[in-house]
Amino acid sequence: MAEDALIVIDMQNDFCPGGALAVPGGDEIVPIVNRLIEAAPHVILTQDWHPARHSSFASSHPGKAPFQTVTMPYGEQTLWPDHCVQGSSGADFHPGLRWTTAELVVRKGFRTGIDSYSAFFENDHLTPTGLAGYLRERGIAKVSLCGLATDFCVAYSALDAVAEGFSTSVVLAACRGIDLNGSLTAMTRRMREAGVELI
Ligand code: VGL
Ligand code: ZN
């Protein structure tokens, strides 16, 4: 029988107010996400998990500032403040998140030379995280996504989920966005056009 899973994207301290890459209102969604977790038959979490001096950090590119872009071998990459460094408290899940029932934690962004927004593929759109195979082996055909940030990790995960053949929805009330240069409108449109159900 086909089963459903909830994928909770990057609900980590660094993406919440007070964190290194705070998403406005990022902590407001914690109670909503907790309710979704309680109701979900299977729960999977992602955790942004960068080594120090990761290539997505502006601090790794002399003369560059956060939110500027660089061209990487795999294409254009936005530069971020140092965030979600492996083992740091900023990389921990928000303390209010009730995540203990999660069956899998997918860590991503752990290769120094490449960023990974999506839960499925790194930013070269070629290197898999293994999540699609895990879901298929477990007979999960439908995924719902929530978390941070709507216009980056949630959106790229949703686009890849659809492309991998999963029936995909995003619970927008349980997401918050960064909205860099109109990215929230652009990525919302891309998700809708790709066949992601926006709830
Ligand atoms: C994210 C930027 C950099 C996200 C992660 O979770 O949306 N955004 N790393
Ligand atoms: Zn990151």
Automatic annotation (TrEMBL):
It comes from the Bacteria. SUPFAM superfamilies: Isochorismatase-like hydrolases (SSF52499). The keyword GTP-binding does not apply. CDD domains: nicotinamidase. It is an enzyme of class 3 (hydrolase). Its EC number is 3.5.1.19. This is Nicotinamidase. It comes from Sinorhizobium americanum. The lineage of its organism: Bacteria, Pseudomonadati, Pseudomonadota, Alphaproteobacteria, Hyphomicrobiales. The gene is pncA.
